[in-house]
Specification:
The structure is a single chain. By secondary structure, the protein is of the alpha/beta class. The protein has 2 domains: 3-290, 3-Layer(aba) Sandwich (UDP-N-acetylmuramoyl-L-alanine:D-glutamate ligase); 298-428, Alpha-Beta Complex (Protein-Tyrosine Phosphatase, Chain A), CATH 3.90.190. The protein has 16 helices and 18 strands. The strands form 3 sheets. An 8-stranded mixed beta sheet has the order 4-3-2-5-1-6-7-8, sandwiched between helices. It has a 6-stranded mixed beta sheet with strand order 13-14-18-15-16-17, with helices on both faces. Helix 5 packs across helix 6 (124-139) and helix 12 runs parallel beside helix 13. The radius of gyration is 22 Å and the shape is globular. The protein starts with a helix and ends in a 15-residue tail after the last helix.
C-alpha cells in the first residue's frame, strides 16, 4: 500500500476527533479569551481581515445568522458562518456559502489546532471556533458571520473583533454563568461591542445596562429597534424601515409572516445594510425563501398529522413558540413532546405553555448528561395541572408513543432543547418538510 494512502487511512475520523475533544479539557465550559486567543495568534488567525458580523443574544441568534447568510449570499458574497450547537451533525456549525463543510476540512483544522496549542487546554467549543476560522481562511470567504455560544464577553467568538455587532433578545438563561437579571445578562452580551463599531439592537425592552455599556465602550451608531429602525405588523404581514450605512432609509416591501420572527429577520437585514451590502427586492424574496434554519418553528406533515419542531429551551422562547401555535389552525388536538436540560427553569417553561396542550409525551435523555430526568418533568407537569400521557426512556420512544395516539388533524409540538429536536428530526427525515404545512 502506498505510504500516502496508508497515512490517510491512519487519520482519525471526525467522530474520533469530536470524542477526543470532549476529553482534552477538564471542564465542558471554561469562559475566557486568553487561552483561545493565544492559540489563534499562534495560527496567525487574528486579526481577521474580512468584515465580521458577531451575533449575540438569548434567543433569535440562529435565525438572524440564517437571514444574514441568505441575504449576503444573494448579494454575491461568499459567506462563512459559525453557529452552535448543532442538531444532527457537527458540520452544521461551520458553513461556507450556506453549505456545511466536509469532514476532511474539519479534521485537518483540528489537527492544525492540536499541533499549535502546545500545553494549552481548549474546550470543545473553543476547538470548534478556531476550526471555523481556519476553514474560512482556507476558503477565502469574503465575510464572516459568527454566532456567540454563551454570553458574549468571555465567549470564544469574542476573540474576533466585529465590523458590525448584533444583539437579539435578552432574557433569563444560563443564569449560573451570566447572572440572575436581564441587566446582568445584558452586560455579558455587551462584551461583543467595540469602540466605533455599529450595534444593531433587536430587543423590544433593552435593559438600561446595555445602553450604559454601549455608551462607555463607544459603540456607534447604536441602531435601536423602534427608534433608529422600525418594524410594523399588519395582519399576517410585516414591513420594516431600515437604515443604510449612509443614513438613508430603506423601506422594505410588505412581507408575509413565516416561521421566523420578523424582528430577527430585520436584525439580519439591518446588519447587512450596515456592512454596505445592497440588495434589491427580488434578492430579498429569494433570501426569505431560503433562510430556513432547522428546528426553528419547523413544520412537517405526515399522514394528516402536523408537526412543529422548535429548539425553545427557556421561558421566553417557549412563550414565543406558544404564540406561534396559538396563531395556527389545527383541526384536532395539540400535543407536546418534551424533554429539557436540568439547568433550565423548567417550572417557568411549563408555566409558559400551561393550558395550551391536550397532553404531554415526556422523554428522558440518557445519552445527555445535562438532561433533566423524565420523572422530574412529570412531577412538574402534574404540579401545573398538565396531563402526561406517556413517560418514555428517550425522545425516539416518546415519538413512537405519540404516533400511537395521534390521529389525522392533530398536531405534535416537539420542543425543550436542541437534543430533543435533534433526536426527533431523523424520524421525519424521509418526509417532505413543507414550511407552513401546519398553519
Amino acid at each position: 500500500m502506498p505510504l500516502l494512502q496508508r497515512k490517510e487511512m491512519d487519520k482519525p475520523s471526525l467522530a474520533q476527533w469530536l470524542a477526543r475533544l470532549e476529553t482534552l479539557h477538564p471542564n465542558a465550559m471554561d469562559l475566557g479569551l486568553e487561552r483561545v486567543s493565544a492559540v489563534a495568534r499562534a495560527l496567525d488567525l487574528l486579526p481577521v481581515p474580512q468584515p465580521v458580523v458577531t451575533v449575540a443574544g438569548t434567543n433569535g441568534k440562529g435565525s438572524t445568522v440564517a437571514v444574514l447568510e441568505a441575504i449576503l449570499g444573494e448579494a454575491g458574497q461568499r459567506v462563512g458562518a459559525f453557529t452552535s450547537p448543532h442538531l444532527l451533525r457537527f458540520n452544521e456549525r461551520v458553513r461556507v456559502g450556506g453549505l456545511e463543510v466536509a469532514d476532511e476540512e474539519l479534521i485537518d483544522a483540528f489537527a492544525a489546532i492540536d499541533a499549535a496549542r502546545g500545553d494549552i487546554t481548549l474546550t470543545y467549543f473553543e476547538f470548534a471556533a478556531l476550526a471555523a476560522l481556519l476553514v474560512f481562511r482556507s476558503r477565502e470567504v469574503q465575510v464572516l458571520v459568527l454566532e456567540v455560544g454563551l454570553g458574549g464577553r468571555l465567549d470564544a467568538v469574542n476573540m474576533v473583533d466585529p465590523t458590525v455587532a448584533v444583539i437579539t433578545s435578552i432574557d433569563l438563561d444560563h443564569q449560573e454563568w451570566l447572572g440572575d437579571t436581564r441587566g446582568a445578562i445584558a452586560i455579558e452580551k455587551a462584551g461583543i461591542l467595540r469602540p466605533g463599531v455599529p450595534l444593531v439592537l433587536a430587543d423590544l425592552r433593552p435593559p438600561p445596562e446595555l445602553y450604559q455599556c454601549a455608551s462607555e465602550l463607544g459603540a456607534e451608531p447604536l441602531l435601536d429597534l423602534g427608534r433608529d429602525w422600525q418594524m410594523e405588523m399588519t395582519g399576517d404581514q410585516w414591513q420594516a424601515s431600515l437604515r443604510k450605512r449612509s443614513g438613508e432609509i430603506r423601506r422594505l416591501p410588505p412581507q408575509a409572516c413565516g416561521p421566523l420572527l420578523p424582528i430577527n429577520i430585520c436584525a439580519g437585514l439591518q446588519a447587512a445594510l450596515l456592512l454596505g451590502v445592497e440588495f434589491d427586492d427580488r434578492q430579498l424574496q429569494r433570501a426569505m425563501a431560503s433562510a430556513r434554519p432547522r428546528g426553528r418553528r419547523e413544520c412537517a406533515q405526515r399522514g394528516g398529522v402536523s408537526y412543529v419542531l422548535d429548539v425553545a429551551h427557556n421561558p421566553a422562547a417557549v412563550n414565543s413558540l406558544v404564540e406561534y401555535i396559538d396563531a395556527t389552525s389545527c383541526k384536532g388536538k395539540i400535543f407536546a413532546l418534551f424533554s429539557v436540560m436540568a439547568d433550565k427553569d423548567i417550572t417557568a417553561m411549563i408555566g409558559a405553555a400551561a393550558g395550551r396542550f391536550d397532553g404531554w409525551f415526556v422523554a428522558d435523555q440518557p445519552a445527555t448528561k445535562r438532561s433533566a430526568a423524565g420523572s422530574r418533568l412529570v412531577a412538574a407537569l402534574g404540579a401545573a395541572g398538565e396531563q402526561v400521557l406517556d413517560l418514555s426512556p428517550d425522545p425516539a420512544a416518546a415519538f413512537a408513543a405519540a404516533q400511537r395516539h395521534l390521529v389525522a388533524g392533530d398536531c405534535l409540538v416537539v420542543f425543550g432543547s436542541f437534543f430533543t429536536v435533534g433526536d426527533v428530526l431523523p424520524l421525519l427525515a424521509q418526509q417532505p418538510l413543507a414550511a407552513g404545512a401546519c398553519a
